[in-house]
User: What shape does this take?
Amino acid sequence: MKNKIGLLAILAVVIVVVAVSGCNDNTQTNGTNANAINDKSTKVAIFNNGSTWAHVEMVANATYKNGTNMTVWADTFIKPNGNVTIDLSQILGYGNEPLPAGTTIRVQSWKGLFNATGGGQGMLNISFQGWSNNRYPTANDKLTNVTYNPLSISTLPANITDSIAYIATHQTELDKIHPIDTSDQEPLYEEELIVVNADGTVTITVTRIPELCRAIASIV
Assistant: This one.
């Protein structure tokens, strides 16, 4: 993961979105499961609908509950038919509270495909979903699908054996996950807009469609 700091300003919070009933609590900070999801908090998950490991890296400027500006990095690997769930409220100091209505998040994300051997091409097929006030999303929590084909497949890092989301909020944390992947392994660039609604639901809009953009992906 790279230290992408030339980011869009964000009013308050991080990231994107998907899940089905039974989402995995696979968020890790510094390699430990430090962010198990809460019931009422605002959460985000990514679901891999494809047959190849999906990699999604997201970077956002965020506002902590006390008003402090912060940058949040998320480096996620999702196995085929797997998912990861991230508790945004916990990361930003809201605990088990939903994020405030009107929270707007602009996200930059880089994506790639991985498998054990690398080589060849495959199709990225993922979904994003966000929600609040329930442990798992409901039928009212809409999915945002992202597909792209063809996309080159890179070799999966040896230490990645299950779906996982590495989260960093400080440079020292980022340094520990920095070596996981390179720009060439996540050539697909996209931007999303996330809005938390008054009822806690989350609306996700793709504001820049997926495109091969190595120049952007190489920002460090």
The radius of gyration is 16 Å. The chain has one domain: 27-217. The first strand starts at residue 27 and ends at 29. The chain is about 5% helix and 45% strand.
